[in-house]
Amino acid sequence: MHRYVTANMAGPYHIKNNIVCQDSYCVKKTNENITIAAVADGLGSEKFSDIGSKIAAKVAVEHCISNYNSNLSEDEVKKLMNNAFVYGYKSILEEAESAGEDEDEYDTTLSLVIFDNSKLYYGQSGDSGIVALLDTGEYIKLSDEQNDEYGNVYPLCSGPNVWQFGKAEGNVVSVMLMTDGVLKRICPKILKYDERNININVPFAESFMRRDETSDETVELFQTSLREFLEKYPEEKIDDDKTVIIIFNDDVNARYMDDEYYKFPDWDKLRKYSLDSLNQSDNDNPDLTELSECSESLTESLSVSTAESDQDKSNDIDEASIPKKNDIDVHYPEKEKSSKVTYSKKKHRHKKQKHTKFSHHSNSIVFDLIILLTVLIFSMLAFFSNKWLTEHANASYITVILLCFLSNATILLPAPSAIVVIEFSFILNPVIIALCGGLGSALGEMLGYVAGFHGARAIQTNLNHSNKNSKFKTFINKHKSKHPYILTFLISIIPLPIFDIIGIAAGASKLNPLKFFAVTICGKTLKFLMYAFIAYQLIPIISSINL
């Protein structure tokens, strides 16, 4: 049977500056012996990385929960996990597009495991970490930190060429997923100089991952102690957000290695080896005293918790102190079309750097150009058919909707719908005429929105290949109104033929199409009500003149 503990909290720097925790996690169990878990670390340099990390972790786990079964081969499981990463990234793109924000602002790492009885599959993108304890008593680091030579991280958007998938060799007793702040304590880089060829701080990992008893009560107590330990961890040692998931397999016990395996490394000796070759801060080179004290502190706190459990079985755990699973609403893509997904070669952690797309397909440009051409052709047809329809159509409300639609579908061509509303207001109910005119005009203006959206996307896609995409985005954002919907409403009331420009700009800025449509209807209807009122007031005057 599997049991797990979690801890998720903002780092000291984020707490001081009132910044949300950018780490996220998700854990699900399909049954007692299959657990699927993920941790994600939103890049601190990005505005909405906390949202990106939540979506990535949630979608990846849910996709695996829905599609995994124990009969899959190793290659099939790896493909499943790759698809989970694709779905996670596509959901982030959908969220960014829905919010009208730059997809780069949602960058995140992602680490994923499928723990089936004692089999463990893993996937990695970024610099978080996965460590497993085998039944032999050996600790193994499964994932590699994906950084370049300057320490910049490759996030999820870097794509399948960077992602790492694999299977642990041997029977797994427990597994620990952690974001990079905790990983640096468990697997400090300086250990690569250890003569024993052990890249894990075993005494430290032992305190976390070996549980001789894993009843529900002791696991809950351990989770509380784990959270308290991470909260009290010295700020100068871990200033980053801290997220940990540890999953225990009750059905397998870990043997013990020889005593030498559990000794602390000789940190002073390692530091001498690394003096000339390591370029990292003191925070990345923990000393013997610090790690010994941390290990002893954690072991002591867990021992106290276990003792309290034995003395008083009725003690309640404070539910507020136990982290809850992330629960967010995510838009799932209906079908996987990985050929349409664009990944980025961006690699960064603290600074935003220029990047280029490496797997964009020309199909999207062709599609955008076809849509744009279709809109322009339809606009021309609407312009030439509008006059004929005005002369031959019957006087009805449907006719008003159709004529106003065609008048406003003529992008940048003069075909005023105000005349239609005024003429029909002399014949039919003016209020209903205004409502019909507002609906038809708003529908027609959506062609300008579509032209702006696909035209801007075609330009942006083309600039991706010439590394000028960031300049194009800067231009769009610079000229984007802070209150676009208010501006749309006000200009839709003005009796001037300039609204086509607003529609094109709205599409290029990726405003929410439903909101744009609703605001346009309101503005156009209000304008036509004024026209209809004027026409209604003129009826007695015109009648008296005719008499």
Task: Please give a handful of descriptors for the protein shown.
547 residues, alpha+beta, 5-stranded antiparallel sheet, 16 helices
Walk me through the topology.
Elements: E1 2-9, H1 12-16, E2 23-31, E3 34-41, H2 49-67, H3 74-99, E4 110-116, E5 119-125, E6 129-134, E7 139-141, E8 164-167, E9 172-178, H4 180-186, H5 202-209, H6 216-231, E10 242-249, H7 267-274, H8 288-311, H9 362-392, H10 397-409, H11 418-425, H12 430-464, H13 469-478, H14 484-493, H15 499-508, H16 513-546
Antiparallel strand pairs: 1-10, 2-3, 3-4, 4-5, 5-8, 6-7, 6-9, 9-10
Domain PPM-type phosphatase: 6-249
Subcellular location: Cell membrane
InterPro entries: DedA_domain (IPR051311), PPM-type-like_dom_sf (IPR036457), PPM-type_phosphatase-like_dom (IPR001932), VTT_dom (IPR032816)
Structural notes for this entry:
It is a multi-pass membrane protein. It comes from Ruminococcoides intestinale. It holds the Pfam family VTT_dom. Belongs to the DedA family. Residues 6-249 form the PPM-type phosphatase domain. This protein is an alpha+beta fold. Helix content is 48%, strand content 12%. It has 16 helices and 10 strands. The chain has helices at residues 12-16, 49-67, 74-99, 180-186, 202-209, 216-231, 267-274, 288-311, 362-392, 397-409, 418-425, 430-464, 469-478, 484-493, 499-508, 513-546, and strands at 2-9, 23-31, 34-41, 110-116, 119-125, 129-134, 139-141, 164-167, 172-178, 242-249. It has a 5-stranded antiparallel sheet. Strands 2-3-4-5-8 form a 5-stranded antiparallel sheet, covered by helices on one side. The radius of gyration is 31 Å and the shape is elongated. The N and C termini lie far apart (95 Å). The model is unreliable at 278-292, 301-339, 345-362 and 463-473 (pLDDT under 50).
